[in-house]
Each structure stands twice: as C-alpha cells, then as structure tokens.
Amino acid sequence: MLSFIKLIPEKLSRVTSGRKLIKEIDGLRFMAILPVLIQHMAERFERNTTINFTTPLSENGFAFLASRGFLGVYLFFVISGFILALPFASSRLNNTKKVKLSDYYWRRVTRLEPPYIFWITIFFLVIIFYGQRNFLEYLPHYLANLTYTHGLIYKEWSPINPPTWTLEIEIQFYILAPFLTHLFFSIKNKTLRRVCNLFIILGLMVAQQYLKFYANPANLSILGHLHYFLIGFMLADIYLCDWSTKIKKQTIYDFTAVLALGTLIYIFSWEFNFTNRILVVALLFTFFYSVFKGNYVNRFVSNKWIMSIGGMCYTIYLIHLPLAELIVVFTKNIHITNYYSVNLLVQLLIFLPIVLALSALFFLFFEKPFMNKDWSKSLFSNFPKYANSLVPFKYVLGRKTK
C-alpha cells in the first residue's frame, strides 16, 4: 500500500503532448483551485448551518478569508493567458515550429470537451431525476451549457453547475488567443512589445470601468476579464525572452510572493473602484512572477503532490460544487462549539479529502485519457493501463506485480 501511495503523484501527472512540463504552472493551478474549494464549501456551510456563532459572519476574520476564493478564478485566467501564449509567442520570437490553427482548435475540442460534456450531462440528469425538476424547463439551460453560451443567453450563472461561467470565458479566450498573440508578438522589439501590452491592459480597464463591464452581464463574458489573460501574455514574454536558459532564484521573491498574495486577499473589494482594480492586476503579476523567481515558494509549488492536485484542477473544478452541495446535507448539523473557524475547519476536513480523492479517480478515468492528442486511437487499448493504476488491491491482498 505504501508503494502505491508513493506512485500516486506520478499516476496523476498530466500528459503534455510532448511539450515541456512547467512545474510552476501546475503548482499555481493548485494555488488557484484551493481557495475556490474553500469559498464554495464555506458558502454552503453558512447557508445550511443553524449554529449561532459567537461573532457575526460579517465581522468574522475567518469568514472574510474564506470569501476570498474568487481570486483563484483570476489566477486561472492569468495562467490560461500564459499557457496559450507560449507556443504562438515562441514561434514568433524564437522561430520554433509554427502552430497550425486547425491543430490548435482541434486540440482544445478533444482535450476539454469529453470531460465537460460528460459531467454537465451527469449533473443535468441528477437535477431532473433526483431534484425532480421539469425536463423541458432545464433542457435549454443544458444546451446553453454544452455550447458555452449560458452567460450570453441568460445573463446569469447556470443552475446546472454555476462555476461553468468561468469556463465559458475561457472558451471565448481560446478562440481569440491566436489572433491576440499575433497582434502582440508580431512586435519584435521587446521593450515596445511590453509597453504596448501594458497600455492595452490599462486601456481595457479604463473602458471596462467607464462601461461597467465588471458588472453583469458583461462580467459573464470575456469583456470583463480580458486584461487578466493579457497579464499572462506579459509573463509568457518574460518567460521566453528573459528566463530562456535558467531562472535565477532569490529569497526576496519568497517575501514578495507572500506579500502580494496577502495584500490581494486583504484589498480586493466588490466596489470595483479603478485604483483597487489596478492594484489587483499589479499584485497578480507580482505573485505569478515571484513564484517563478522565489526559492521556498517555488519549491512548494513544484512539490509533486501539489503539482498532482493542480494538474487535475479541471476535474476538480467541474465536480466540486455539486459535491459540496451533497456533502453539506450530511455535515450541516455537525456542531463543535460556537466558533465559526472551528466548525468551518471541520467541514473542510471532511470535504477536501473527499473531493480530492474522487477528483483523482475521475481524473484518471474521464480526463487524463483525453490529454493524449491521439486518444481516439489509443483510448481503448490504454484503458486497462489506467484501470490498473487505480487498483491498490494487489498490494492489500499481497499480490505482486510482474
């Protein structure tokens, strides 16, 4: 059993289609998904508990920290901007292999659609049969989910799986990314390119502020979030041009990473004043940059267990909220003192291991096979391998593998 446990991170490692695995990115994905999990479980607990807490939630520091999970969504947007920019930017700046648009779009479809369609269909059926909802009423929502148009059509989150509003924005960015990268990385002068990027980010934010794109319904589209992806462009530029050989790590960046993250948590406001929004953008950039340049923070995000959790964040993101809704039905009456922090910790100690364990299982069966770009050819031949990687019974029963 111990041998099996040690193999878990390797089994959960992502397939990268031959490209270099950037360890920090999977670690950053962990940093993005964890606060989302905490916030969504905290919200379900707060709505369902009958505990009379010693401190009102509006004045509770732990409730405030738990509510900061949406910052993880913005970090996901920066990561997407970074990852999608890399191959196009490398082709332009380093004369590497040109990216074929047909391959790029087909890869997005074959990689992301199968698990997405599977889980949206599962949750739709659960709502209809277990939730006893009207099929014809929810069918349009299901179809809008499948086509990533729910926010555009209904101007609100999906009742089937609310967090998918961010995936709709990601898809919109995937469509635009090749053209945006062409615009940015056609500029050969590094300084001019980065100045242009910075001014476009600021220009977008000014337009968003004036037109109030930070509020619904524009906030459910790329219009309210494009600047986060462009931060990823800037970081991809730095990664390719300034860190192409070796990244010099310094302990000072451990402090800046912690300071940036702590300040992000503290200063973010739903009032969306322009100064606050500028600070959020600057701090997201600083945090991302410092993770690459720091010593101890970099070691943390590059830890194989942290990376394995971050690598399966897509599955976690798709299933975590319905699991939170289910689990809180059984845990809402757990009452240990009247302190919010103690009770939330108990809820998280139940929820997090369950969602991570199930996500690992579902990742191996319903996501990882589709990371292979030739999955349609090899899925059935490789299925026994994936199944075998999940079964620890051979260790429990004392059997030896050949």
Automatic annotation (TrEMBL):
Keywords: Acyltransferase, Membrane, Transferase, Transmembrane, Transmembrane helix. GO terms for cellular component: membrane. GO terms for biological process: lipopolysaccharide biosynthetic process. Residues 23-362 form the Acyltransferase domain. The chain crosses the membrane at residues 62-88, 116-132, 171-188, 195-214, 220-240, 252-268, 274-292, 304-324, 344-366. InterPro entries: Acyl_transf_3_dom, Acyltransferase_3. The keyword Oxidoreductase does not apply. Pfam families: Acyl_transf_3 (PF01757). One of its GO terms (molecular function) is acyltransferase activity, transferring groups other than amino-acyl groups. This is Acyltransferase. It comes from Adhaeribacter radiodurans.
